[in-house]
Design a protein that fits this description.
The complex is a heterodimer of chains A (250) and B (291).
Chain A lengths: L9 H21 L9 H10 L1 H35 L1 H16 L6 H8 L3 H23 L5 H9 L4 H39 L4 H10 L3 H32 L2
Helix pairs in contact in A: 2-10, 3-4, 3-6, 3-8, 3-9, 3-10, 4-6, 5-6, 6-8, 8-9, 8-10, 9-10
Chain B lengths: L26 H5 L2 E12 L2 E12 L3 E5 L6 H8 L7 E6 L4 H6 L3 E4 L11 H11 L6 H10 L15 H14 L4 E5 L7 H16 L4 E6 L2 H7 L2 E6 L4 E7 L14 H16 L4 H8 L1
Parallel strand pairs in B: 3-7, 3-8, 5-6, 6-7
Antiparallel strand pairs in B: 1-2, 1-4, 8-9
Helix pairs in contact in B: 4-5, 4-6, 5-6, 8-9, 9-10
Classes of the chains: A mainly alpha (250), B alpha/beta (291).
Membrane topology (chain A): Multi-pass membrane protein
Keywords (chain A): Cell membrane, Membrane, Transmembrane, Transmembrane helix, Transport
Organism (chain A): Halolamina salifodinae
């Protein structure tokens, strides 16, 4: 008896292919004008026709995502550890951390421009801000996952606080830290595109902005597809990491 | 079957001054050496008097069991001895010092009701991990031998999720042994296991205790378990949590699972049930005593 079920990854691939076919059929059959919605082949032609432009833009955006994302998740992680490790700090700060998620970080962009000027630093700073909050909240929450009995056990041998932090509390928090990382990575990509809209220093977001001014949805969609690839790759990588960790800590 | 009524009043005739040396070259003092010493221990949680003036002492190498209904403060008593619970008044001493000293010295081996194994570590890693937490040399090879001896040779590299509840608890007991503590504090370690596994485990605990010179304080809500294991049984009652009796178990050692089928065993169990029944505080206690 052989298992005739297709592999797990094939489902989203088929869904994506189906969506593109539907899109192509919709445009061809209804004769949609290209300034409203171009044919997928036209979009692909943009990408292939001028690979340098898109590659440069994709690299610029990826750099922002990585630099800003790394800084934001690191600071968020450290805040999360501090808040999780020091109960009074948790009581004092946790309500604001949650509210900070409701606060649109975009509204802080003008402030960043005042501090850092219009340039790379503001873009990176914005990405970092976007990535920071989910990471901080999830990490802090993860630190509350350590079972009391595990802490009792550590206490019964007078284990040092640092040792308990690294050997007991962090491993128990790991799944939540990864969950935070997953949200942060997604928001970092969103943040990079947004930052390129108001900083206008290149990248896929800037390309989308330019294409919008010239009413070129084909260029917009070509750029968008690359944003999707970046986001999907990062999310997938973190997801795999999370699955492996979850397998161990359960 | 001598009832040590003195315990009723919180005074034990086995009582020795706190601070007495744990071991000495002098034979006469070794004989009277008290390892665990609890004096007028009271623990209050808000309005609840969890433990009301409990006093007891455990000699070096003695196996003392504590039995009583839920809520009688037996776990609180054990946690106070282990320094995990700060008493409202009174004090607990281990080897003549506050429990914190014994903690630092790695001289308290805890076994909890839940196995508290770390899910991301194998059985062997879990066993050595407690020593590492205590800042000691892990002694991996010795740990492997101990697991082997405990019948866990095949489970050395298994993760807790791959083991049964009973096997996890065995690993937890091996972990406590491997720490090298001279005092073991066991809080209903078989509470989550089925009846058959439970007595099987009890027998193996007895076996490893025989081969060592450890002092054990063992909390349980099972009267047969308390009788099978203990040199003496401390009987507790609830509302408020307190010690009501200390019963000598006159059954000869070594004891095995089959000991439970003897008439002497049944008598001892009946005696303790009698004490529990006399001291029941409410309906729950009545149901308990019938078990």
């Amino acid at each position: 008896m052989s298992d005739s079920r297709p592999p797990e990854w094939s489902y989203p691939v088929v869904a994506l292919g189906g969506a593109v076919v539907l899109w192509a059929a919709f445009v061809s059959l209804l004769d949609v004008p290209p300034y409203l919605l171009p044919h997928p082949i036209e979009v692909a032609r943009r990408l292939v026709g001028n690979p340098g432009l898109y590659l440069d833009a994709a690299v610029a955006t990826t750099v922002k995502v990585f630099v800003g994302g790394a800084a934001g998740t690191l600071v968020g992680f450290l805040i999360g550890v501090a808040v999780g490790e020091i109960p009074p700090l948790w009581r004092a700060i946790s309500p604001y951390l949650v509210v900070a998620r409701v606060l649109p970080v975009v509204s802080l962009a003008p402030l960043l421009i005042i501090y850092f000027g219009v340039g790379f630093a503001t873009g990176v700073g914005f990405v970092a801000l976007m990535a920071l909050f989910p990471m901080a909240i999830s990490t802090a929450a993860g630190f509350r996952q350590t079972p009391d009995a595990a802490l009792d056990l550590a206490r019964s041998v007078d284990a040092s606080r640092l040792r308990v932090l690294f050997a007991v509390r962090l491993p128990y928090a790991a799944p939540d830290v990864v969950a935070g990382l997953r949200q942060s990575v997604t928001l970092a990509v969103v943040g990079a595109v947004l930052a390129e809209w108001f900083v206008s220093d290149g990248g896929l977001g800037y390309l989308i902005l330019l294409a919008s001014e010239r009413i070129r949805p084909d260029i917009m969609l070509a750029s968008l597809s690359l944003v999707f690839v970046i986001g999907f790759t990062l999310y997938g990588a973190v997801g795999l990491l999370g699955a492996r960790l979850r397998e161990r800590v359960e | 079957m001598v009832l040590q009524l003195s315990v009723l009043f919180g005074i034990s005739d086995r009582y020795v001054l706190p601070g007495a040396p744990r071991s000495s070259d002098d034979e006469s003092t070794t004989e009277w050496c008290v390892v665990i010493d609890v004096e007028e221990l009271t623990v209050r949680f808000d309005d609840v008097l969890a433990l009301d003036g409990a006093s007891l002492s455990v000699d070096d190498g003695e196996f003392l069991t504590v039995v009583g209904p839920s809520g009688c403060g037996k776990t609180t008593l054990l946690r106070s001895v282990g320094g995990l619970q700060t008493p409202t008044s009174g004090e607990a001493r281990v080897g003549g010092d506050p429990p914190e000293t014994a903690q630092s010295a790695g001289d308290l081996g805890f076994v909890f009701q839940s196995h508290t194994l770390f899910p991301w570590k194998t059985a062997l890693e879990n066993v050595v991990f407690l020593r590492e937490l205590a800042g000691r040399d892990p002694e991996r090879e010795r740990a492997r031998e101990r697991l082997d001896t405990a019948g866990l040779g095949d489970a050395v590299d298994a993760y807790p999720r791959e083991l049964s509840g009973g096997m996890c608890q065995r690993v937890a007991i091996v972990r406590a042994m491997h720490l090298g503590a001279s005092t073991l504090l066991m809080d209903e370690p078989f509470g989550e296991l089925d009846e058959l596994t439970r007595y099987d485990m009890a027998a193996s605990v007895l076996e490893s205790w025989r081969d060592s010179d450890r002092t054990v304080l063992f909390v349980t809500h099972s009267v047969p378990e308390a009788v099978l294991l203990g040199d003496q049984v401390i009987v507790m009652a609830d509302n408020p949590g307190r010690i009501v009796d200390r019963v000598d178990v006159s059954l000869p050692r070594p004891r095995e699972e089959s000991t439970m089928d003897t008439a002497g065993f049944a008598e001892q169990v009946a005696e303790i049930r009698q004490v529990l029944r006399q001291n029941r505080g409410d309906d729950e206690g009545a149901i308990y005593a019938e078990r």
